[in-house]
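Hi L.,

As promised, Helix-turn-helix protein:
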Amino acid sequence: MDDLRQIIKDRLSKTFSGNTQEVTARKLNTTQGNVSKWVNGTQIPTPDMLLEISKAYKVSVDWLLGISEQREIDGLVVEKLTYEHIARVLDKLIENNTIEIPDLVVMANENGLSSIAEDDVEDEEESITKESVFDPDYIKIKDRLLSYIMRRRYKLASIDLEMFDEWKEKLNNFQGLRLLAYNEKVEAAIDYKSPAQFKDGDWVELVRYLSTMTTEELHQLVEELKKKDGTN
């Protein structure tokens, strides 16, 4: 029992390390005194409370009890990821148009900057030719929903850790939602639907709807939205 108490104490301390005891107590709907006893090893959480901790912090009950070394329950164990795996994932996301490595020259021109890639003077009028420059350090998220999710992450993380935890919890709203095969028509359909006003449920409904459409249906939808918007 003493060994189990020590294991749970150590693993709860690691689990709660990003929060104060007050924040942890609020997240688990318990008292700060209980949290203090758990991390001090003077009390072991009940089975029901271990389950609540598992849900709130996305850690395995077996890991908390020392039965397993698999800490995470969502499959994202950073220590087990490899560079090959991440590179393959990024490559697939680029192929799917979910993300892109932007042309820095194009970006510079769009932003009124002309000093990024000046090459040889081409003719008598001294027009400047510019070759494409792709830098993998600059990754652009093209998928509107993924961009929305990540923008909210940084917005909430800049406020406080508790808000960041709320962002993690709200990721459950998108659980099981398949990644869209992204293209200009999908992007146009989303943009015409005014996503600036969207809540999570609106995003889920739209993405599910778009994922069922054929290329022809998607084209027809965009044309209808253009007419409605008066841009056709």
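Residues 119-129 have pLDDT under 50 and may be disordered.

Thanks again for sending the construct details.

K.
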